[in-house]
Protein 1
Amino acid sequence: MQIYNTYSKRKEEFQPQNPPLVTFYMCGPTVYDYFHIGNARSFVMSDIFRRYLEYKGYQVKFVMNLTDVDDRIIKKSINENKTAKEVSEFYSDRFFEDIAKLNIKPATEFPKATQHISEMIEMISDLEKKGFAYNVEGNVFFNVSKFKEYGKLSGKNIDELIVGARIEVNESKKNPLDFALWKKVKEGEPSWESPWGKGRPGWHIECSAMSIKHLGETIDIHAGGNDLIFPHHENEIAQSEAACDKTFVKYWLHFGFLNIQSEKMSKSLGNFFTARDVLNKYSAESIRLFFAQTHYVGPLNFSDELLQSSAKGVEKISNLYEILQQKSALNNIESQTIDFNFTKYYERFSIAMDDDFSTPQAVAVIFDFVRDANKFITENEILPKSFYNDASEYLVNTAVNVLGILKDDFSKNKIEDVIDDKLIDILLNIRSQLKNEKNFELADMIRNELQILGIELKDGKDGTTFKRK
Ligand code: AMP
Ligand code: ZN
């Protein structure tokens, strides 16, 4: 399997350190508001990667952090006259609700920054002891000039970065690129005791401390949106490698932006739709298909037309799935050799996904499968039960379990409904016969008994239909 590594800027063979274990860290949300559909692109794509690695037999330890102490949370708490904790807890809960609605599998761990303050303090102390950090009156900074490889992820040298970067101006810093590891408390802000006095951690140290705690000093995959390459991930490397003296991450993966009119969707630009608003209009499956149809590295423009066409795509797959389930439930024809090569579609799916998670190709394989299976069913009146089961299983393995673009709600209940529907039809035929014979007493008895079961009959000119209540 090949993965594009932002660090080497090329596709590399994927070799986790301790297979079948894969350690995977994804930079999660800052919980100060509902997340937008741009954030959702990164969350959903990382979920698809994790599911595909599991499909391949890896045991994925997937960690997604929640940044629950941050300037934006503090600002919101002041505006809304709440505590920072109230704000972050409220939006953490909304985050969990929204990712569940997006059919994102819960991470193995969802560590929160405020629950790891002691690990962060320990790491900052270590960096200070090793000469990588300095304290200026209760503010502790990372000394970038001491980490010789600074810039190795973003591919820039320190001088270029100083000129090009928009960095916080702070007169206490020795170098404009130095970044805060510990911020001295300000009036009304949440704070914790530390060797440098009361304060709170900087954003970058949160991810280093949490990934090391939950996944070890070297992790296999670290992912996040493109906006995090610099400075966030560059700083994570500097802190972690300076503290541990080990490669921090083997494979760096970055998601392209979801744009609106070719501009990055973001809260600060105000050009965003929240994921929950979009979920009110489109199903999770349609949204996921919309994301999967573009390769994760490149940009993707948000568009209603594309989402509508994804919704149609999902319907096509669901229609086939429903037919397969119904035909399987009503079929007793034993196995026989048939001329439909499932292996080919499994192989094509894997070839696509093994090539740096090429979801657009993987989706194309599923649509080819849907087209070919529909054709096969039309052309062959009698097919064994095994065909319908194998075809359903293919869709479950790929479209349901890996991409999450098909809902597996046509399970047992619906199969039972299909069988029940047949039984009700039989009863309706008997009832119609009874009415012809003027045996209204028995005909009414059937109507009443069905009514008790929640099945309502409607007599019309063309016969009787039924509705479940
Ligand atoms: P935040 O809550 O801003 O820290 O972002 C959470 C995650 O969403 C991070 O991995 C970001 O890189 C990612 N992200 C933010 N904006 C976008 C966007 N427009 N498109 C794709 N990913 C994004
Ligand atoms: Zn992070």
Protein 2
Amino acid sequence: MKKKIALITGITGQDGSYLARLLIKKNYLVHGIIRRSSSFNTGRLEDIYEDPFKKNKKLILHYGDLTDFSSINSIIAKIKPNEIYNLAAQSHVAVSFKTPEYTTNVNALGTLRILESILHNNLLNTKFYQASTSELFGNPEYKTQNENTPFYTKSPYGTSKLFAYWITKNYRESYGIFASNGILFNHESPFRGETFVTKKITRAISRIFFNKQKYLYIGNLNSKRDWGHAKDYVHFQWKILQQRKPMDVVISTNRQFSVRQFIEECCKFVGWKIKWSGRGLNEIGKINYEGKEKTIVKVSKKYLRPNELEALKGKSIHTNKTFKFKLKYSFKDLVKDMMEYDLKHNK
Ligand code: NAP
Ligand code: F7E
């Protein structure tokens, strides 16, 4: 049987690397778009990376950039994918306040460029997945969020993804493209970028444990998120494109924890109990270390955002019901997986 062909934008990122593994396992021929960078950016793909001269490859990488229509269009025209997963993005919310125009170009116009390319090449049977986000929500009146919750974005990142959400829907309704939005809540893993809060914490606690770092400098300790595991969530990305009809769907764990609780859980993992004192920017976290109190967490205004999305909690009904896939990782399992990896790699 002919192999299905998938194209993943953002294949070098956290989700892209897990999704590529999953699709290879499912016998797809996977193509990925990578950006030119001054050093290798394929670190997350190491175990599936294949020599470009090898025959019968399962993974083929192409240079391209979401800000450059000609690169995107020529790749799509050449490989004619059955499924496109648009995971590429300037995905950091705090950074989007510093680079709003670039963030919009990649996340909003980049999505439009792919949809236009599908149309131009008359690939109306190609299925399209858009990596939408819980950052579309944000009105504190709604304590939990699902597909019916009104959007209220609070950052250039969120607003760029709002455009991408709607343009995906517009092209579905206008041209009949099988185009779906996966509205995914935060998902993490050992492969999470080092400047996102979970990875920053697991890495810092591991390094403090090995006396390689003194403090974890952190922003809003009270911010709450619904954290899942990326390995679980890429299954949904694939499942969403395997449905009979395109859809816009929320994926979440329906549980919520604060940044403070995440730190406490990581400390617990290495046998430390953290005690908090002070308030606001003066708040610190101490542990008992060889009979003495030792400060390991300090709050820094550097990590506060111009506009914060204080709390997110999903109310997904689809994970088990529609997709028949049970989440394998709980909050504790996620912390364990990330801490084990960082303790091993920071020793
Ligand atoms: P990530 O680790 O930051 O990966 C982003 C990917 O996009 C990387 O491969 C990056 O390449 C690539 N990229 C960035 N700018 C690009 C450009 N101009 N042209 C081509 N590629 C570009 O993000 P992630 O956590 O895997 O998330 C995947 C997608 O889901 C993103 O769209 C994100 O916004 C969205 N999302 C994520 C979450 C989450 O909690 N993780 C939740 C909801 C939605 P480099 O490796 O070269 O930087
Ligand atoms: O922040 C707070 C911060 O940067 C989580 C992206 O994948 O998920 C991600 O966006 C919370 C925020 O993720 C620090 O203020 C405190 O309230 O890990 P984060 P995010 O902003 O939720 C969504 C769903 C996406 O779509 C995005 O692509 O933690 N926080 N102190 C901090 N955050 C960071 N980064 N660093 C801190 O020191």
Protein 3
Amino acid sequence: MAEAKKTGGLAGIVAGKTAVCTVGKEGVGLTYRGYSIEELAEKSTFEEVAYLMLRGALPSKGELADYKARLKSMQDLPGELRQTLELIPGGTHQMDVLRTGCSMLGTLEPEGEGHSQLDVADRLIASFGSMLAYWYHFHAHGKRIETSSDEDTIAGHFLQLLHGKKPDDKQRRVLDVSLILYAEHEFNASTFTGRVIISTLPDFYSAITGAIGALRGPLHGGANEAAMELIEKFSSPDEAEKGILVMLDKKAKIMGFGHRVYRDRDPRSDVIQKWAKELAEQHGDKRLYPVAERIDQVMRREKNLFTNLDFYSAIAYHFCGIPTPMFTPLFVISRTSGWAAHIFEQRADNRLIRPTADYIGPEERPYLPIEKRG
Ligand code: COA
């Protein structure tokens, strides 16, 4: 059992090479193509980071302007995709909306002639927010919204479609920073899924669709929604402390804590915590942020566990006025840039990813005809 735990889940196994990102490397922490996450989150924008991911270098001023214009021109959705979004039931998990939207777009604008892998990557990054907002307004308010906006950033575009008005500057920047933080994270489960899929040489959309499926679970991307649900359960820090102690006593996992690679801290969490606090204060919040902070303290004290990016992202998104079921889909918009970089990298030097397993089943035995089985 202990042995299985040590080696299970491919923990500590080097499964390939990448030039995209370092995670938890001593003295370096998290870097995207050599740039530290702290610096990127402070000084850059998500569009610069997406450009860096997909094109390998930070853009010049002119290149960034062109790239933003390109993304803006790719925000709108084809009629058939809108119809599909209308057919997806209103109660659907919103990750399933994006998974289906991605797959459908792959039938309308298949990768190949006229749609290079770079075109598809940009198209998905530009249009995922439109898909989510279109589906949401159609089902929640019976409205068919326009999916273009006058905002020229991914964050601003999404917030404008969601709220139907020009976004608040701070909310736009907080969402932008969170998209930077979520963009890439080496061989995490969804990225590895994408690499496995693309290694069999299918189209680009297949790999992204599979990656969305892997991201949906609460041990991975789904943790930000689960963290919000947890925080919202408590009406005060004292109540939260009692509740968390009971959960720990029952050996429950507390969502938004711990990490497979980081051991002491997740560098992304400090960045988003600062923004979450600022937004909470701006909203005069006296409950959610203090509850979150107490859960953080209890987890450090009791389990020596630290918050990962998902924990305080939940608070930040909440105070951007974003409904909880949209938290993980926002992660998709951002991580598509990282997934795409890995897909390009895998394709450039591909070998089918096909590991082997230790067999622990029965010895070879004779086949019994059905009438002789008990
Ligand atoms: N809450 C409570 N205990 C936790 C925990 C958490 N969030 N994360 C890890 N632990 C404990 C485990 O129970 C285990 O304790 P044990 O050795 O006494 O059994 C120990 O820490 C190691 O955890 P394990 O689940 O084996 O680590 P892992 O590397 O397989 O898992 C995660 C990493 C991220 C999946 C795990 O920390 C987790 O489930 N976190 C919550 C989900 C989450 O926030 N996911 C987003 C990741 S960015």
